[in-house]
Amino acid sequence: MGGGVEKSIPRGIRNNNPGNIKKNGVDWDGLSKEQTDNTFFQFDDPVYGIRALSKILLTYRHKHGLVNIWAIIARYAPPSENDTEAYKNFVKERTDLGMLEEIENTIEAYLPVVKAIILMENGEQPYDDETILKGMNLAWESYRK
Predict the structure, then answer these.
(1) With contact defined as beta carbons under 8 Å apart, do 47 and 134 qualify?
(2) CA dist 65 → 17, 112, 125 (Å)
(3) In the predicted model, is pLDDT for residue 3 greater than 70?
(4) 5-23: buried (b, 16+ CB within 10 Å) or exposed (e) per residue?
(5) Domain count, the chain
(6) Which of 2, 19, 32, 112 is the most buried (most CB within 10 A)?
(7) CB within 8 Å of 41: residues ≥ 6 apart
């Protein structure tokens, strides 16, 4: 396959970083040894990218008190880099949650939020629930420690 095919795969999917988490000095589990993307982290497996995204959402909840779509997306996708209002509405429409409705602190409640963020960030959501839940479970386990 030519290089053009590789480029057609969304950056977040290529990087196994479906949340498009920017490099910020965090030493995430599962980071690829070679970080060839100058802006976004690259992970060895999408499970680790999903774990990182989930840990960010858990940190928002437990450290910053951000428990609804409006607050989470306002921080995750700030207006300086995104159309934050469109992003909030996108996530709301795909989760059946109200914009200000508190998300339960369960993996099941956050699963549609994680899927919506992946879809918004990449224009596709190619992962099965098993893969997403594996990453989310790693985040929940590490957060409890």
Answers:
(1) yes
(2) 25, 20, 27
(3) no
(4) eeeeebbbbebbbbbbbee
(5) 1
(6) 19
(7) 15, 17, 21, 22, 23, 28, 31, 35, 49, 52
Express each pLDDT in 4-15 by its tens digit.
455 699 999 999
Between CA 141 and CA 91 the distance in angstroms is 25
Please state whether the predicted TM-score (pTM) of the whole model is above 0.90. Answer: yes
Residue numbers of the domain that contains 67: 3-144
Computed on alpha carbons and rounded to an integer, the radius of gyration of the chain in Å comes to: 15
Label residue 2 by pLDDT band (50, 70, 90): very low
